């Protein structure tokens, strides 16, 4: 038996500590990992070698000193009990707090947390489709882990353009502060930390871009010397292995390093694979390196029982989100090509494209034509730019071949046909543009230019098309310069973010945002916009999904209206190619309502590869009917019918939103019933607002701790942070720190939603963060209040309360006990009340039952103060305390035995499975090397088998520490309650 149990309170160097972990030390003693409890060392962590300490005193609960509470209505005691109650959450698989975040809760949003919390360690890929709210789902899981003491240190890695958006979402909705370590943030951080200090150790919770990490060797060194409780990698497909790669990219190597630096790993991506088994296997290996033995040949059965992935499409959660996720309306606008456009099509088909100075009929020449045709399908202006670049390229050669001279001549003819289409001042000759203009001005479409809450997004792949549109829409719609803007990839990240924020502010004059596909991933454009126009059709189904997801997403208040523009021509070749693009649009709609994943039709899972495949269809001369048949066959081959065992493994894994039925799979919430898995504990206070108000009142009794006030009707508390709170709040992002240390917290989620909306529309950067903070248990100020009230009674003391609702002579002790694992994490937490009448035996009842019986609620018990009988009662209760603790100890030993038996069975099964998986990986390694030379084989086998053994040994140790309970429960005496009068008095 260990001399010190994880979870025990000890006194070392005259300060109180909570033992979190115990490891054997090389000097024959023990290494204690401790968290500070008493005021001087609170929020500090320390390591102690028992052999070097003069004395380590374990606080014996039987010797807890009972003291009277003189506060009105026993406020100090009730606050003390409530604060302990809030921070002692067992490591179960229920949702305790995340459902109360500032969000319109929909059941499916809880499913990732419920699935991850059932694992020994929470590692999961949240692969929901575009627009379903993966950031919020990750926030719910992070909140639950924080409540369990498993989320003190957090690192989020995302794309540069998403840093601020992610940071704001987690702070304003979950009160999770992430300090931004981008190029701007790093300069601020350097001024706040000592030289040569690891910024990842200085800030417990931070966010950084993947590009900053991969390109900075200094940060790699910092990563290797830091540890987190939670790591989140957003858009994780960017760190997956890619099909055809011979080695790992820098991003992939970085992700592999990060995966070893945290117990919890959360991956987010709507496109979690590139269609290859190896790509997806690389993400699975980040989550669990023991899951897959052969990254090129495996099935979902190899890892699905581990609960590592969750993926839903709109069709899967449609019945849950009718009010929050409205079905989109699509409009297909058709216009006939005019004579000039028909001439341009003919001229394009006449160009004899060359390669290496020669014109050779075949697929390569057709692909060159298709590339030019793609520009023409976008706009004459884009085609004109491409044509002039091609002419310049060929013309700059010292000596052009005959074939090149012919191509130049034909290109010049093509250029001449384009000029009147691209350069016409009124754009009257460009039929697709005229059809768009007609639609924008029609009463049927209903777009109101003067309505600031009715904005428009127009997508085009080509920047030259966007520039042309800005010029002509400005003239034809009489727009001012600040009413129409371009968003494209050649802009700096800060410029892109500024435009997105402007588009989301009601008071900004911006009405039309012209976007290239750089805006199609991740950005929120839906706040005052539900109309989106595809001026040119994407050649990728994934881009269709990403573009539409900017306005067709969770939180959209209006029915999304998607507009597609089609040009109809009499030219048979061009007509066929345009018809192929129409088929893509139809498949996107089909996927939206039925299949879920549109990329199943092209089966290459990469936007660029999809566009190449479509161009290949055209270059090969496939008819629209042949293309549609090819797409349908690809999708059908991936659709797994119920009861079948065949079909593409990706669709077996992702083809349905229903949980995978498997006896070995962990039980998970079925769609729609996630709310049944909420386990919100009963509170001694009416609300968080009531708790905070009572705490501030109590803490300011007899002395002024801080200046504060309330607005009861609005459920707002304002306070000026005292020095110790100011120091704590330095861990927050600079944007949410108040310059005057004055903070306002609101417990009303509707009012908080309004504050978030108001901030989003603010013009000044510092005002785009809500000035109102969410008042709930996870806010740093609420955590500070809890720490403050816990110190009221001092070390190893518990308050004595009187309740007239008890029987005369009844004695009751409120006891809390926890059973930790070897990592010091509480696996089982029980609150019991040991009570007896007179000199009888103590019996246990649940805390909630006792609270109801004794009236142990805020304001529920009058405090009669110091009475003549109270001193005698204190002595009597003090004498009875050891027996009550022993009854609780015996009860918890029984609980520990039963609980430990369950865990032992689970541990045995897990270890047996690890043994099986390790054998498979060694077997696979043998197969991989069997064709190698014997000398090479021996060396490589030794090296790689050692790596496999190391991975599995590390995982075994982790599982054993996690699923092995300590033999002795830790017990704390929280309070004693008696009747005001002795029996018979």
CA radius of gyration is 33 Å
Number of strands: 28
Helix content: 40-55%
Which percent band covers the strand fraction? Answer: 15-25%
Between the first and last Cα atoms, what is the distance in angstroms? Answer: 47 Å
| CATH topology label of the domain at 106-312 | Rossmann fold
Q: Per the principal axes of the C-alpha atoms, what is the gross shape?
A: elongated
Mean pLDDT level: 84
Strand arrangement across the biggest beta sheet: 9-10-8-11-12-7-13
Q: Tell me about the biggest sheet?
A: 7 strands, parallel
What class, by secondary structure content? alpha/beta
CATH structural architecture of the domain at 106-312: 3-Layer(aba) Sandwich
Could you name the CATH class of the domain at 106-312? Answer: Alpha Beta
Regions with little confidence, pLDDT below 50 for 5+ residues:
639-651, 654-671
The CATH superfamily title of the domain at 106-312: Tandem AAA-ATPase domain
Number of helical elements:
30
InterPro entries: DEXDc_RapA, Helicase/UvrB_N, Helicase_ATP-bd, Helicase_C-like, P-loop_NTPase, SNF2-like_sf, SNF2/RAD54-like_C
Domain Helicase C-terminal: 448-599
Domain Helicase ATP-binding: 115-290
Pfam family, one: ResIII
Can you characterise this structure?
- InterPro entries: DEXDc_RapA, Helicase/UvrB_N, Helicase_ATP-bd, Helicase_C-like, P-loop_NTPase, SNF2-like_sf, SNF2/RAD54-like_C.
- With 985 residues, the chain is α/β, with parallel strands linked by helices.
- Among the domains are: 1-59, SH3 type barrels (Roll), CATH 2.30.30; 106-312, Tandem AAA-ATPase domain (Rossmann fold), CATH 3.40.50; 339-423, no CATH class; 685-776, no CATH class; 796-978, no CATH class.
- It contains 30 helices and 28 strands.
- Strand 18 (529-534), helix 19 (541-548) and strand 19 form a beta-alpha-beta unit.
- Helix 12 packs antiparallel against helix 15 (402-423), helix 14 (380-395) crosses helix 17 (463-476) and helix 24 (688-699) packs across helix 27.
């Amino acid at each position: 038996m260990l001399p010190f149990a994880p979870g025990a309170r000890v006194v070392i160097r005259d300060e109180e500590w909570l033992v979190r972990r115990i490891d054997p030390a090389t000097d024959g003693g023990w290494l204690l990992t401790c968290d500070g409890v008493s005021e001087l060392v609170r929020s500090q962590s320390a390591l102690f070698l028992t052999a070097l300490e003069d004395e380590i005193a374990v606080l014996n609960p039987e010797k807890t000193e009972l003291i009277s509470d003189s506060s009105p209505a026993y406020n100090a005691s009730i606050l003390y009990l409530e604060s302990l109650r809030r921070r002692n959450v067992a490591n179960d698989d229920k949702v305790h707090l995340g459902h109360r975040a500032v969000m319109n809760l929909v059941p499916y949003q809880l499913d990732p947390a419920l699935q991850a919390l059932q694992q020994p360690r929470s590692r999961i890929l949240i692969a929901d489709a575009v627009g379903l709210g993966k950031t919020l789902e990750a926030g719910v899981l992070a909140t639950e882990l924080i409540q369990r003491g498993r989320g003190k240190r957090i690192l989020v890695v995302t794309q540069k353009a998403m840093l601020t958006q992610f940071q704001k979402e987690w702070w304003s909705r979950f009160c999770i502060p992430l300090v931004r370590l981008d190029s701007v943030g790093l300069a601020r951080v350097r001024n706040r930390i000592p030289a040569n200090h690891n910024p990842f150790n200085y800030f417990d919770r931070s966010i950084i871009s993947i590009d900053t990490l991969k390109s900075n060797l200094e940060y790699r060194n910092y990563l290797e010397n830091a540890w987190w409780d939670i790591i989140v990698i957003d858009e994780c497909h960017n760190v997956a292995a890619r099909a055809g790669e011979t080695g790992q990219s820098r991003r992939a190597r970085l992700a592999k390093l990060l995966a070893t630096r945290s117990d919890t790993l959360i991956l987010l991506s709507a496109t979690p694979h590139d269609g290859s088994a190896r790509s997806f296997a690389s993400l699975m290996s980040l989550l669990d390196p023991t899951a897959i033995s052969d990254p090129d040949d495996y099935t979902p059965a190899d890892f699905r029982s581990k609960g590592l992935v969750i993926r839903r499409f709109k069709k899967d959660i449609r019945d849950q989100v009718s009010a929050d996720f409205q079905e989109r309306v699509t409009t297909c606008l058709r216009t006939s090509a005019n004579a000039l456009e028909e001439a341009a099509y003919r001229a394009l088909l006449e160009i004899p494209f060359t390669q290496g100075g020669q014109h050779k009929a075949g697929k390569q020449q057709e692909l060159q034509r298709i590339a030019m045709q793609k520009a023409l399908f976008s706009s004459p202006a884009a085609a004109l730019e491409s044509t002039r670049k091609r002419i310049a390229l060929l013309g700059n050669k010292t000596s052009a071949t005959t074939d090149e001279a012919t191509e130049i001549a034909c290109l010049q003819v093509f250029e001449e046909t384009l000029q009147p289409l691209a350069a016409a001042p009124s754009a009257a000759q460009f039929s697709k543009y005229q059809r768009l203009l007609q639609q924008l001005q029609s009463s049927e479409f209903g777009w109101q230019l003067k309505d600031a809450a009715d904005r428009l997004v127009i997508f085009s792949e080509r920047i030259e098309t966007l520039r042309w549109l800005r010029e002509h829409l400005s003239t034809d719609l009489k727009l001012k310069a600040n009413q129409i803007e371009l968003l494209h990839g050649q802009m700096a990240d800060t410029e892109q973010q500024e435009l997105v924020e402007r588009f989301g502010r009601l008071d900004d004059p911006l009405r039309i945002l012209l976007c290239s596909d750089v805006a199609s991933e991740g950005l929120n454009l839906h706040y005052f916009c539900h109309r989106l126009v595809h001026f040119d059709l994407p050649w990728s189904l994934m881009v269709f999904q990403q573009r539409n997801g900017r306005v067709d997403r969770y939180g959209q208040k209006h029915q999304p209206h998607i507009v597609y523009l089609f040009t109809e021509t009499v030219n048979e070749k061009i007509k066929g190619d345009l018809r192929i693009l129409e088929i893509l649009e139809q498949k996107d709609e089909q996927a939206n309502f039925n299949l879920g994943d549109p990329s199943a039709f092209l089966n290459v899972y990469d936007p660029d590869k999809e566009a190449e495949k479509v161009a290949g269809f055209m270059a090969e001369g496939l008819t629209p009917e042949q293309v549609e048949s090819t797409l349908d066959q690809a999708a059908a081959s991936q659709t797994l019918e119920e009861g079948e065992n065949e079909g593409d493994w990706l669709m077996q894994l992702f083809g349905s939103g229903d949980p995978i039925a498997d006896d070995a799979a962990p039980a998970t919430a079925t769609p729609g019933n996630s709310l049944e898995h909420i386990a919100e504990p009963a509170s001694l206070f009416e609300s968080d607002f009531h708790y905070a108000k009572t705490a501030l009142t109590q803490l300011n009794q007899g002395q002024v701790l801080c200046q504060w006030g309330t607005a009861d009707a609005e459920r707002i508390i304002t306070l000026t942070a005292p020095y110790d709170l100011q120091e704590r709040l330095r861990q927050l992002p600079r944007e949410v720190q108040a310059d005057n240390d004055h903070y306002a917290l609101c417990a009303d989620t509707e009012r908080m939603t309004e504050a978030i909306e108001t901030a989003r529309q603010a013009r000044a950067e510092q005002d785009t963060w809500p000035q109102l903070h969410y008042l709930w248990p996870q806010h740093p100020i609420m955590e500070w209040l809890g720490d403050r009230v816990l110190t009221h009674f001092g070390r190893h003391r518990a308050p004595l309360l009187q309740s007239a609702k008890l029987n005369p002579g009844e004695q009751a002790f409120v006891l809390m006990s926890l059973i930790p694992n070897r990592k010091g994490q509480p696996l089982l937490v029980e609150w019991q009340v040991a009570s007896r009448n007179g000199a009888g035996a103590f019996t246990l009842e649940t805390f909630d039952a006792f609270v109801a019986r004794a009236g142990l609620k805020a304001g529920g018990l009058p405090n009669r103060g110091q009475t003549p009988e109270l001193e005698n009662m204190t002595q009597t209760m003090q004498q009875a305390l050891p027996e009550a603790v022993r009854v609780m100890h015996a009860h918890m030993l029984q609980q520990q035995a039963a609980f430990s038996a369950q865990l032992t069975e689970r541990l045995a099964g897990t270890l047996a499975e690890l043994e099986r998986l390790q054998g498979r990986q060694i077997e696979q390694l043998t197969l991989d090397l069997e064709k190698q030379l014997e000398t090479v084989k021996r060396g490589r086998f030794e090296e790689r088998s050692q790596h496999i053994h190391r991975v599995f040994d590390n995982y075994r140790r982790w599982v054993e520490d996690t699923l092995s309970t300590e033999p002795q429960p830790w017990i704390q005496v929280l309070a004693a309650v008696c009747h005001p009068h002795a029996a018979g008095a």
